[in-house]
């Protein structure tokens, strides 16, 4: 409709031109206004040149408004003429290939001379005339946590602290450089010697990387980060590069894996790989696919070689699919007498499938199937915990559904089934809940829940409920809960019953500063356990 209005308006004012046809006028729209420049978006700038004059409609006439100082295939960077004030979305007209001077009036009325004053700064500095190609976006947080555990048992009381810093700074100063980080430091009172022995016993760097945009379609990063195209391999230390071509993306990675004992840096765990991805999105559907190859080593020996496929889509209305597949391409036949023999193989190590379907506005159902083997690293775990890795295939099914009975009343149910061939019995669980938000008169939210669990090592049930309420327009909230746990250990015929009480409060002290405190007490027939958890967070 907006484009139709623009076209009609152009036709109406076109009759005022000096015998020129309507097709000679190209409509555009102001997209951005800075202190010195005005940026105008066109469907195409073909026929427009630097130095041309652009016009604005006013009371049925066209008057000179802008002078083009720079342009691309679809937009112009312009200098406003004196006395001209424009805003975003204003209509602008161009006359491609015309020789109209800046002092010409484009009407049949008497000529109006407009003096032109052009900033010398803009004419001499081309870079300042260009629209910002990248826009700065910075967010992050600093947090401090405290964990306190004490009981009436012989176990020692403990006090732990954890500090985190996260930063996502994109295109710093509207430049091509970005930085992302997520760092955690934790220690336990009385065990500082562990930190002195190895800083990485306390310091965990999950993300710390610098990214550079070579252009709008090519990015390169250095440092530790998780590539969303290769999420299954986790964080990686090294260089990552990606190139986008319309709906396709291709990339390569080279570097090393974090140390598998303390998450520190270990150049001996060298790895490299490449991937190809495809994305497509419309108003109602989307599809995302990626195929990757990875080679992982340990001291230059092949540790694992595999391909990874990930796919998600919403090709049918209200139906969402996600799936992954890993296939190992390398196997090491371990022989202590004749020596180890490497072998190429094609061994699927995991399939994960999930579906989510929105049956109605209030009813959602979903299900997943997990058939993943525990991965074998032939060098990393060859001499230590090789035997601990199960080779059997895990089989796991999970179903869940939620139904909104009314605007404030929600019911949900979840069930799971998992079976390991080496286990004598499968594991089963069932969980259901009922939530009533903002109970009239008291504005309290209440949730009731029940869980049943049956596995090889434990059978039992959990019944619980909790209440929560907000105060002062959400700046302060508090809650309390109770759970009754009754479970049995089949092998030892021991039955344990627990009463668990919970209390929490949170305070939004300022716009970006918050504090929260949580307590959990577990009470058995003879023993009691108490845990306090406090958090202070500053966002920016």
Can you give a write-up of this model?
With 540 residues, the chain is mostly beta strands. It has 3 domains: 2-129, Thrombin, subunit H (Beta Barrel), CATH 2.40.10.170; 217-380, no CATH class; 392-540. Helices cover 5% and strands 61% of the residues. The chain is built from 4 helices and 28 strands. The strands form 2 sheets. The protein has a 22-stranded antiparallel beta barrel. A 6-stranded antiparallel beta sheet has the order 3-4-5-2-1-6. Strand 24 and strand 25 (476-489) form a beta hairpin. The longest helix has 13 residues, at 2-14. It is globular.
Give the C-alpha Rg.
Answer: 32 Å
Query: Cα distance, first to last residue?
Result: 40 Å
**Major β-sheet annotation:** 22 strands, antiparallel, barrel
Low-confidence stretches: 1-24, 97-129, 383-391
Helix content: under 10%
Please give the number of β-strands: 28
Tell me the fraction of residues in β-strands, as a range. over 45%
**Count of domains:** 3
Q: Quick check: average pLDDT?
A: 80
Shape: globular
Structural class: mainly beta
Q: What is the helix tally? A: 4
Features:
single chain; 540 residues; mainly beta; Thrombin, subunit H; 3 domains; 4 helices; 5% helix; disordered N terminus
SSE arrangement:
Layout: H1 2-14, E1 26-33, E2 38-42, E3 53-58, E4 61-71, E5 75-80, E6 91-94, H2 120-124, H3 126-129, E7 137-151, E8 158-170, E9 177-188, H4 192-197, E10 203-215, E11 218-226, E12 235-245, E13 248-258, E14 265-281, E15 286-298, E16 301-316, E17 319-333, E18 341-358, E19 363-372, E20 394-404, E21 409-420, E22 427-439, E23 444-454, E24 459-471, E25 476-489, E26 494-510, E27 513-523, E28 528-539
Antiparallel strand pairs: 1-2, 1-6, 2-5, 3-4, 4-5, 7-8, 7-28, 8-9, 9-10, 10-11, 11-12, 12-13, 13-14, 14-15, 15-16, 16-17, 17-18, 18-19, 19-20, 20-21, 21-22, 22-23, 23-24, 24-25, 25-26, 26-27, 27-28
């Amino acid at each position: 409709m907006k484009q139709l209005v623009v076209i009609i308006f152009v036709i109406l004012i076109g009759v005022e031109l000096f015998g020129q046809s309507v097709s000679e006028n190209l409509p555009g729209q102001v997209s951005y206004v800075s202190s010195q420049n005005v940026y105008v978006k066109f469907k195409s700038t073909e026929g427009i040149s630097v130095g041309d004059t652009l016009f604005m409609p006013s009371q049925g006439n066209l008057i000179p408004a802008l002078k083009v100082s720079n342009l691309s295939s679809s937009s112009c960077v312009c200098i406003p003429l004196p006395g001209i004030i424009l805003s975003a979305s204003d209509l602008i007209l161009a006359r491609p290939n015309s020789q109209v001077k800046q002092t010409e009036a484009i009407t049949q009325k008497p000529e109006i001379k407009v003096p032109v004053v052009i900033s010398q700064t803009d004419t001499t500095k081309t870079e300042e005339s260009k629209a910002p190609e990248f826009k700065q976006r910075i967010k992050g947080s600093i947090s401090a946590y405290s964990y306190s555990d004490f009981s009436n048992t012989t176990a020692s009381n403990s006090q732990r602290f954890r500090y985190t810093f996260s930063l996502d700074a994109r295109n710093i100063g509207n430049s091509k450089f970005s930085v992302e980080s997520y760092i955690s430091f934790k220690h336990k009172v009385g065990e500082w010697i562990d930190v002195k022995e190895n800083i990485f016993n306390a310091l965990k760097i999950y993300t710390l990387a610098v990214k550079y945009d070579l252009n709008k379609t090519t990015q390169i990063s250095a440092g530790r980060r998780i590539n969303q195209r290769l999420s299954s391999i986790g964080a990686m230390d090294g260089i990552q590069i990606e190139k986008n071509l319309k709906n396709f993306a291709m990339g390569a990675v080279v570097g090393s894996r974090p140390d598998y004992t303390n998450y520190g840096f270990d150049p001996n765990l060298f790895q490299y790989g490449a991937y190809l991805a495809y994305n497509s999105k419309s108003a109602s559907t989307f599809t995302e696919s990626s195929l990757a190859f990875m080679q992982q080593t340990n001291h230059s020996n092949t540790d694992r070689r595999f391909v990874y496929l990930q796919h998600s889509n919403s090709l049918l209305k209200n139906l969402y699919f996600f799936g992954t597949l890993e296939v190992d391409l390398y196997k090491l036949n371990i022989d202590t007498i004749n020596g180890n023999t490497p072998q190429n193989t094609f061994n699927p190590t995991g399939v994960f499938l999930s579906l989510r379907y929105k049956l109605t506005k209030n009813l959602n159902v979903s299900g997943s199937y997990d058939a993943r083997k525990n991965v074998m690293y032939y060098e990393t775990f060859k001499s230590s915990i090789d035997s601990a890795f199960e080779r059997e295939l895990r089989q796991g099914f999970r179903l869940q559904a939620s139904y909104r009975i009314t605007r404030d009343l929600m019911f949900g149910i979840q069930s799971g089934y998992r079976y390991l061939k080496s286990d004598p019995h499968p594991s089963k669980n069932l969980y259901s809940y009922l939530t009533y938000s903002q109970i009239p008169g008291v504005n309290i939210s209440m949730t009731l829940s029940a869980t049943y669990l049956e596995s090889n090592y434990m059978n039992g049930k959990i019944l619980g409920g909790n209440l929560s309420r907000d105060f002062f327009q959400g700046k302060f909230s508090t809650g309390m809960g109770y759970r009754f746990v009754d479970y049995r250990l089949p092998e030892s015929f021991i039955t344990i019953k627990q009463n668990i009480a919970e209390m929490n409060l949170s305070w939004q002290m300022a716009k970006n500063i918050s504090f929260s405190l949580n307590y959990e007490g577990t009470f058995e027939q003879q023993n009691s356990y108490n845990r306090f958890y406090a958090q202070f967070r500053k966002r920016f």
